[in-house]
Structures are given as C-alpha cells and as structure tokens.
Write a structure and sequence with these properties.
The protein is mainly alpha-helical. It has a single domain, classed as Four Helix Bundle (Hemerythrin (Met), subunit A), CATH 1.20.120. About 70% of the residues lie in helices and about 0% in strands. It has 8 helices and no strands.
C-alpha cells in the first residue's frame, strides 16, 4: 500500500479513536461507568492500531500493551511513558461488558465514576502520543543532530 493510503487509513482509525473517547466521556456523564471504561479502552486500542497502519505493521488484537510491544523499537520508544496506561486499560476489555466476568456482580454495579474518569485520562494520554506520531511535523532528533553536524 502506498504511504498516502497508509496515512489515510491511520487517520481514519485515529478519527474513530477520538470519537470513541468522546463516547466514553458522554457515557460517564450519564452514569454508564462500565461502558465509559470500555470505550476508553477502545479509543486507546484504535489509536494504537492507527499508528500500526501508518507504519504498515498490520496491527492485530485487542491488547493495548501488545499493540505497543509489537511496534518496531523506534516506534515503541514513543509510547514508553504510557505503557502502564495500556496495561491498566487492557484490564477493562472483558469485565466492563460481561456479567459473568466478575463474581456475583454485573459490570453496571462494579465500575465507579472514578474508574471511568481514570480510564478516560489514561486513554487520552495514549491518544496524545498516537496523534503526535501520526501528525508529526518536526524532524526526528537523530535527523536533526546529523543535519547540525554536517554544517
């Protein structure tokens, strides 16, 4: 696929990630905490997949942690500060949706406003890193260093 098509696909996935994050906020505002947590996880997942599509790495799966770990080393470094965010959000993928995922309690009963707020915050931080990578406009530090030494 051409780099223009890869960029377009990445932008489509990132746009959906932003929409999912908006849904997470909307669900939080009406007290749907479990669903808010799930959409926060989905937003992070889709933003990481957007980066994968951008670099043509065929992202697969639902684990935000694995999506980061499967990136090439240089790309992974961009997400080092949010890898713990990914681990926390991964824990929300199943138990936010299925009544049998938690013992004797439904997701609607289990998840709190504070957990939803935190999930949104963690997701926002991942989206910020993904957005910076997808829409980067500055020269990489290594490239800038080599250009400065040639002068």
């Amino acid at each position: 696929m051409s780099s223009a098509k890869l960029r377009k696909e990445a932008e489509r996935w990132y746009k959906q990630a932003e929409d999912d994050l908006g849904a997470a906020s909307g669900l939080l505002s009406i007290g749907k905490h479990a669903q808010s947590c799930f959409y926060a996880q989905q937003a992070a997942e889709k933003s990481l997949k957007a980066v994968g599509f951008l670099i043509d790495s065929d992202p697969w799966g639902h684990s935000c942690t694995k999506l980061i770990q499967n990136l090439p080393r240089g790309e992974r470094k961009l997400f080092a500060d949010v890898e713990d965010n990914a681990k926390a959000l991964d824990k929300l993928y199943i138990p936010t949706r299925y009544p049998d995922a938690l013992a004797d309690i439904t997701p609607a009963e289990a998840f709190t406003k504070e957990e939803a707020r935190m999930a949104i915050k963690l997701s926002q931080e991942i989206l910020s890193c993904a957005k910076a990578r997808i829409y980067q406009v500055s020269i990489d530090v290594e490239d800038a260093d080599s250009e400065g030494s040639e002068a």
